[in-house]
Write a structure and sequence with these properties.
By secondary structure, the protein is an alpha/beta fold. Helices cover about 35% and strands about 25% of the residues. The chain has 7 helices and 7 strands, in the order H-H-H-E-H-E-H-E-E-H-E-H-E-E. It has a 7-stranded mixed β-sheet with strand order 3-2-1-4-5-7-6, sandwiched between helices. Strand 1, helix 4 (about 70-75) and strand 2 (about 80-85) form a beta-alpha-beta unit. The protein is globular, with a radius of gyration of 16 Å.
């Protein structure tokens, strides 16, 4: 299967189980596909946004960590207290080999997360709020596990913001006083070599 076909195959998953199984199968080729074939830049973009607001000693959850590409970027920036969470054990196994995370947890966004309330100083989630992946309701749990004053940083496809209910959920949490919008990046092309038509933004919210 070609890298382009593999991406569409994963996007077309209809259940968490199917998504998990496909990511398990993709884990060995994931870094090669994303870096070499697609020129994936969202880990750098989101990490740069996070670094404006989050101290180096912060306890940070990488929600949907995959093979740890975000963790690698954050580690190079001096972050050392990183926790990886993903629904795919194969991806977590690949992330563990990078040696940048302290903990690894197999969980799926959209479910209740097995973390304490206010457990993290920050959450970063890259490439997760897209087609066939985490639902808008995931934000509720990310807010719960982030301490007041902490930040939630995520990339998102603006084209699914409204169709997937993401905008409504973000606005609902603002109206409820759960978080406030801190920053929205300029739109950029996260896969310039492989899917140049795809556009992302990075958004930063502060939990209140």
């Amino acid at each position: 299967m070609q890298p382009q076909d593999r991406v569409q195959w994963v996007y077309s998953s209809t259940t968490d189980q199917e998504l998990e199984e496909r990511y398990d199968q993709w884990a060995d080729e994931y870094d090669q596909d994303l870096d070499t074939e697609f020129g994936w830049i969202s880990p750098q973009a989101a990490s740069q946004s996070l670094a404006k607001y989050v101290a180096n000693d912060a306890r940070i959850l990488d929600a949907g960590a995959g093979t740890g590409l975000v963790g690698e970027v954050l580690a190079k920036m001096g972050y050392t207290n990183l926790v990886a969470m993903d629904l795919s054990q194969g991806m977590l196994d690949a992330a563990e080999k990078k040696g940048v995370y302290r903990e690894f947890h197999k969980m799926a966004l959209g479910d209740q997360l097995d973390y304490q309330t206010d457990e993290f100083d920050a959450v970063i989630s890259v490439g997760v709020f897209t087609l066939g992946h985490a639902p808008a309701g995931s934000f509720d749990e990310l807010v719960r596990i982030t301490r007041p004053g902490g930040h939630i940083v995520f990339s998102i496809r603006p084209d699914i913001d409204e169709t997937g209910g993401f905008k409504d959920k973000q606005d609902e949490l603002v109206a409820a006083g759960k978080w406030k919008l801190t920053e929205v990046s300029d739109r950029y092309h996260p896969l310039p070599k492989g899917e140049p038509e795809v556009v992302h933004e990075v958004r930063v919210f502060q939990v209140t």
